[in-house]
TrEMBL record:
Name of protein: Unannotated protein
PANTHER family named among the record's database cross-references: METHYLTRANSFERASE DOMAIN-CONTAINING PROTEIN, PTHR13369
Phylogenetic classification of the source organism: unclassified sequences, metagenomes, ecological metagenomes
GO terms for cellular component: cytoplasm
Entries under InterPro entries matching the protein: Methyltranfer_dom
A Pfam family annotated for this UniProt entry: Methyltransf_32
Domain Methyltransferase per the UniProt entry, residue ranges: 2-37
């Protein structure tokens, strides 16, 4: 479980949970600085420049991309994942919970393709991908 683990601390917690074969992963991400910094140094794919030229909108979009990629990575390595609101946004805007249950189900070809395409289009290299490189590679050959 990771509650408001800042930036890549969420990724550390997820990676450890996967390596420990945790039956359940609960992660409530907080800051998303890693991919924010990457996106600031690259050009956004068309037509998303309309969004990313505005700092606040870019920040919110990258938060969503970061957590979508975390969920996708968990799916690839055999988890069923839900992204849910765990507390009302009147209390905190950081109210996303990634809830993952290990099923061992292999990743579908379409899940892998969507994941890879999102990374390619945005030119992103999430730290979770690096941390779980061996597990992701093994999942690709299942």
């Amino acid at each position: 479980m990771a509650l408001h683990a800042c930036d890549t601390a969420t990724d550390d917690a997820i990676a450890r949970a996967v390596r420990w074969s945790s039956p359940v992963v609960l992660a409530a991400p907080c800051c998303h600085h890693d991919l924010q910094g990457q996106l600031a140094r690259t050009e956004s794919p068309s037509p998303y420049g309309l969004v990313t030229r505005h700092g606040l909108l870019r920040e919110r979009l990258v938060d969503v991309l970061t957590d979508a990629l975390r969920a996708s990575t968990l799916r690839i390595v055999g988890y069923r994942v839900d992204a849910i609101e765990f507390v009302s946004d009147e209390h905190t805007p950081r109210n996303l919970l990634l809830r993952a249950v290990h099923t061992g189900a292999p990743a579908s070809v379409s899940d892998l393709a969507e994941h890879d395409e999102l990374l390619r289009q945005w030119g992103l290299h999430p730290v979770l991908e690096t941390m779980l490189a061996a597990e992701i590679a093994a999942a690709r050959v299942r």
